[in-house]
């Protein structure tokens, strides 16, 4: 299970900066249960947070300098408030925390909090201008990087939640999530929607998060516990890493946007499955399959959410999860041989359902498995991976976790 992150980041902060932090904030990773690759097309997502978290100990500086130290790398992230926007390396771990700071600073300057000084804007000294503060940050995470468990959204949420608190910005969940999305899309170069960012902010213990991108609607639903259902939630990190900034994800997003344009709609959310089938000859075969995944996945996720709300038809829910995995594998082509192997193995061992989670091309598998057979699943997966010569996977049974918060 996870480490005592509060103690780790406080000790790390003291060692790095020789003083006490102002506080400690953290945010979870997440398991995407359904709805992957739909939110850029005004789609829907169903997810929950996991016990693995990112954590940061933070304190302000008076000189405008920013230093971020981590136990994840020997490199530091160093910049200042004046030049931060131009000094963020792309496709690098530093892009996430520095990008989150830059995005929060931009929000604060566009929405100056009460009491902001009026002498900071050189073009008009009377205009309120948020000066910000320098920062010292010690950052860590227990979320495996590249495992499809939203480690990037978690890091962004940890930093943004902390700055929202001690800069006194009063931002809501949707605004904080948008900061994370902007950081990934505009700074890191990993275009994506809001679902992951909403989930890691809005999540609650023992509850799931439904997000409708079309109306930015967030619903919190009670999650059936393993004791009630007899099924444990299990994630398996295949150790097959992916990167959100991969060009393959951008290509697929472009294919979906092109399909909507050819069909005469703003987004694929407006397209019914029958309309898409009728227009198949207007689209390239690959583009059609990408669009078919999004259109069908939106319908599946809406039906799945309805069944989760009512507690009805667990067999139908499992059927929907299986259909989602098939669509991700065959139409969106983001499953891999190792993910397929893991899904098939879990199913053979008696899982009620097994499905990749996240963007794919590596990452993790989410399994609903009989509680009394979880240890058998763990041992069998570890043994099978060893036989294949693969790195030992993380196999974690969990209940839904709380979202971003202050821990100290």
Automatic annotation (TrEMBL):
Domain GHMP kinase C-terminal: residue ranges: 320-385
Coiled-coil region(s): none
UniProt GO molecular function: ATP binding; galactokinase activity
Gene3D superfamilies cross-referenced by the UniProt entry: 3.30.230.10, GHMP kinase, C-terminal domain
Enzyme Commission no: 2.7.1.6
Record domain Galactokinase N-terminal: where: 13-60
Domain GHMP kinase N-terminal residue range list: 133-198
InterPro entries: Galactokinase (IPR000705), GalKase_N (IPR019539), GHMP_kinase_C_dom (IPR013750), GHMP_kinase_C_sf (IPR036554), GHMP_kinase_N_dom (IPR006204), Mevalonate/galactokinase (IPR006206), Ribosomal_Su5_D2-typ_SF (IPR020568), Ribsml_uS5_D2-typ_fold_subgr (IPR014721)
GO cellular component annotations of the record: cytosol
Keyword Transmembrane helix attached: no
Keywords for this protein: ATP-binding, Carbohydrate metabolism, Galactose metabolism, Kinase, Nucleotide-binding, Transferase
GO biological process: galactose metabolic process
PANTHER family per UniProt: GALACTOKINASE-RELATED, MEVALONATE KINASE/GALACTOKINASE
Family: Belongs to the GHMP kinase family. GalK subfamily.
Protein name, entry field: Galactokinase
Organism from which the protein derives: Pseudoclavibacter helvolus
């Amino acid at each position: 299970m996870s480490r005592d992150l509060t103690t780790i980041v406080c000790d790390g902060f003291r060692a790095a900066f020789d003083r006490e932090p102002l506080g400690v904030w953290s945010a979870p990773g997440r398991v995407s249960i359904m709805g992957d690759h739909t939110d850029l097309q005004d789609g829907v997502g169903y997810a929950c947070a996991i016990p693995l978290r990112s954590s940061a100990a933070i304190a302000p500086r008076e000189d405008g300098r920013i230093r971020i130290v981590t136990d994840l790398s020997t490199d530091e992230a160093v910049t200042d408030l004046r030049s931060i926007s131009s000094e963020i390396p792309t496709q690098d771990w530093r892009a996430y925390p520095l990008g989150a700071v830059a995005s929060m600073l931009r929000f604060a300057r566009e929405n100056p909090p009460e009491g902001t000084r009026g002498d900071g804007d050189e073009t008009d000294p009377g205009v309120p201008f948020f000066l910000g503060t320098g920062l010292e940050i010690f950052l860590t995470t227990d979320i495996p990087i590249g495992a499809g468990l939203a480690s990037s959204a978690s890091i962004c949420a940890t930093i943004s939640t902390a700055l929202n608190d001690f800069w006194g910005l009063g931002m809501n969940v949707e605004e904080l999530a948008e900061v994370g999305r902007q950081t990934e899309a505009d700074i890191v170069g990993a275009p994506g929607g809001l679902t992951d960012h909403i989930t890691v902010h809005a999540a609650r213990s023992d509850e799931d998060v439904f997000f409708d991108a079309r109306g930015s609607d967030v619903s919190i639903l009670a999650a059936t516990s393993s004791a009630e259902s007899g099924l444990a939630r299990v994630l398996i990190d295949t150790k097959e890493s992916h990167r959100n900034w991969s060009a393959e994800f951008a290509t697929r997003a472009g294919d979906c946007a092109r399909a909507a344009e050819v069909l005469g709609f703003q987004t694929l959310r407006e397209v019914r499955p029958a309309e898409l089938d009728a227009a198949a000859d207007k689209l390239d075969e690959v583009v059609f399959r990408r669009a078919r995944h999004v259109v069908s996945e939106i319908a599946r996720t809406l039906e799945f959410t309805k069944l989760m709300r009512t507690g009805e038809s667990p067999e139908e829910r499992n059927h929907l999860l299986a259909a989602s995995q098939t669509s991700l594998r065959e139409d969106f082509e983001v499953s891999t041989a190792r993910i397929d192997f893991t899904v098939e193995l879990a199913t053979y061992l008696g899982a009620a359902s097994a499905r990749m989670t996240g963007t794919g091309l590596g990452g993790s598998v989410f399994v609903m498995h009989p509680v009394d057979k979880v240890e058998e699943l763990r041992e069998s997966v570890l043994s099978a991976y060893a036989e294949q010569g693969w790195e030992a996977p993380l196999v974690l049974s969990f209940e839904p976790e709380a979202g971003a918060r202050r821990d100290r």
